[in-house]
Amino acid sequence: EVRLVESGGGLVQVGGSLRLSCEVSGFTFDSGAIGWFRQAPGKEREGVICISNNDDSTYIGDSVHGRFTISRDNAKNTVYLQMSSLTPEDTAVYYCVADGRPIYQLEDVELVPTDFHSWGQGTQVTVSS
Question: Which of 12, 15, 40, 90 is least surrounded by CB atoms within 10 angstroms?
Answer without folding.
Answer: 15
